[in-house]
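Lab notebook page, bench 4
Experiment: in silico fold of construct C2
Operator: M.H.
Input chain length: 138 residues
Purpose: comparison with the prior construct
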Amino acid sequence: MYLKSVDGKILFEGRFSSVKGGVEMAVEAGQNLNYINLRGAQLDKAQMHHACFWGANLNGANMAAGDFTNSDFRTANFLDTCMAEADCTGSNFDGAYFSKTIFTQTNLTATRFSCPSIFSVDLAHTSDMTGAIYSHLG
C-alpha cells in the first residue's frame, strides 16, 4: 500500500492493512510526510508523536482521541476535521487553515497558531490551551 502526497507522489510504501497503520508506521520510522493527502482518513486513536504533516490535506479526517504531541501541522488544511479528545501538546499549527474543525476536549497546551481561521472554530470546549500562542505576521 502507498501513502501519497496531494499531487500523487509516493511518500511511503509498505505492508499495512489500513491508512492509519501505514501513517503510524511512517511516523515511527521518522518519514517526512509533507503534503500527505489524508482526506477523509480514519486516524482515530492514532499514536503519532512528532509527526511531520506540513502542508497536509486533512480535510474530513477523523483524528479523534489521537496522540499528536509535538507534531508539525504547519500550513495543513483542517476543513471538517475531527480532533476531538486528541492530544496536540506542543504542536505547531502555524499557517494551518481551519473551518468546521472540531476541538472538543482537545489538549492544545503549548501549541502555536498563526492563521486567523483558527478563530472561526469553537475553542471554548478544548481541554487545555495553557501556553498556546497566536502570532500573525500578515
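Observations: The radius of gyration is 14 Å. The beta strands are 2-4, 10-13, 77-79, 92-93, 97-99, 112-113, 133-134.
Next step: discuss at group meeting.
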